[in-house]
Amino acid sequence: MRRSFKLKSGMRYYISFLFAAAVLFGAKNSFAQKFYERNEYGIMGGASQYFGDLNPEYGFKSINVAAGAFYRYYFNPYVSLRMGLNYTHLSGKDSDSENPFQQARNLSFKNDIIELMAMGEFNFFYFMTGDEGRRFTPYMVLGVGALYSNPYVIHGGRRVGLKGLGTEGQNFEEYADRKYNRINAVIPFGAGIKYWIAPGINLGVEFVHRFALTDYLDDVSTNYVGEQRFLTPNGRPTTSSLLQDPSILVDGGKLGIEGRQRGDRATIDQYFVGQITLSFQLKTYRCPSDHPLWNQ
């Protein structure tokens, strides 16, 4: 009888051990499911506005589409690094201005901008997706990047690139210093707010101002070099002569006298982008880090 009792007692201990282990394992899994990777993948979409020689008063009359994709890596709940590939269309035209000089100058441009950027992101509050107590935060971004730019106009029903025309004399030796590149540096600076709408799914709104380190996103920067330089040998107009100075004066004359101001080279071109972001973090069964910031 004693032996039978010992066996039954041992069985009870064994079953109790298995039950406790199962409870602990389940609790561990339940806790682990609260963790999400440091890696985040997202898309964004919104609108942009150009500021420059054709919009010196910072008006919002030429708002265009903007979109992109990004990757974000969290160093901790306050600091992250973001890499992004973005597209936006920029445009501007003097006819939108109430300034008499701009109305007479009558320049315009369009530009399809492609950006590759790296930005530091700084959260004001502790942010962790899936944590009810850390659901949202405002943030700031600052970074550096490169942009591809190729200004153009629609002339005679077709797209005409402006860079190759040398509208400010770039194709003449004495004005070679006015040549510009299609690829330039850009500095983004801005702020936003993000909020997790479901564990691992984050929604945000941000407004980022871009400072392009070029004054030729609009193909306008310095002075006119004179129409005669662009005419054919027999004095007939060319696409270059027409687009470097499409001015409209009351007396029928032209604004583009050699040496007269065409743009303002003292400033650089800029543009503003407002976007909604949607991003995703995948579950992990490991705590993101043992760093104290992750365990507050």
Give a structural overview.
With 296 residues, the protein is mainly beta. The protein contains 3 helices and 10 strands; from the N terminus they run αβββαββββββαβ. The strands form 2 sheets. The chain has an 8-stranded antiparallel beta barrel with strand order 1-2-3-4-5-8-9-10. A two-stranded antiparallel sheet has the order 6-7. About 4% of the residues have low confidence.
Task: Round the Cα radius of gyration to an integer and report it.
Answer: 30 Å
- Strands of the largest sheet, in order across it? 1-2-3-4-5-8-9-10
Largest sheet: number of strands, sense, barrel closure: 8 strands, antiparallel, barrel
The percentage of residues in β strands lies in: 35-45%
Report the helical percentage.
10-25%
- Derived structural class: mainly beta
Give the overall shape, derived from the CA principal axes: elongated
- CATH architecture annotation of the largest domain: Beta Barrel
The count of strands amounts to 10
Task: Please report the first level of CATH classification, the CATH class of the largest domain.
Answer: Mainly Beta
Could you name the CATH topology of the largest domain? Porin
Q: Helix-strand pattern, N to C?
A: HEEEHEEEEEEHE
For the termini, the CA-CA separation is: 56 Å
- Overall number of domains: 2
Please mark out the parts with pLDDT under 50 across 5 or more consecutive residues, or reply none: 21-33
How many H/I helical runs? Answer: 3
User: Mean pLDDT score, rounded?
Assistant: 89
